[in-house]
Specification:
This protein has 120 residues and is an all-beta fold. It is built from no helices and 11 strands.
Length: 120
């Protein structure tokens, strides 16, 4: 099993920046990919960005050019640098890790979420 611990959320003014961190720990062979999703009040959870251990990234159109996802050297930590924040970015941000054992399919674990609030 994998546990994910997120940090870095908070309150920021529009135009500001925040950096989210997510660390994976537990019993697993390898992490294959990590990502960030978000859920705003009254809305469905949506993809923000993902990154594979080979460095391939994918972003939601709404955050392209403003957010950057990266992975730590140990390949079990992910970061989300968020710049030019807008009140529309206000949401609970969830970290994900796709991990596996040598003979198993990839399994996705979710973090507990961290609140990001952008004031206008």
């Amino acid at each position: 099993q994998v546990q994910l611990v997120e940090s870095g959320g908070g309150l920021v003014q529009a135009g500001g920046s925040l950096r989210l961190s997510c660390a994976a720990s537990g019993s697993f062979f390898r992490v294959n990919a990590m990502g960030w999703y978000r859920q705003a009040p009254g809305k469905q959870r949506e993809l923000v960005a993902t990154i594979t251990t080979s460095g391939s990234t994918n972003y939601a159109d709404s955050v392209k050019g403003r957010f950057t996802i990266s992975m730590g050297n140990g390949k079990n930590t992910a970061y989300l640098q968020m710049n030019s924040l807008d009140p529309e970015d206000t949401a609970v941000y969830y970290c994900t890790a796709d991990w596996s054992y040598p003979t198993t399919k990839s399994i996705r674990s979710w973090g507990q979420g961290t609140q990001v609030t952008v004031s206008s």
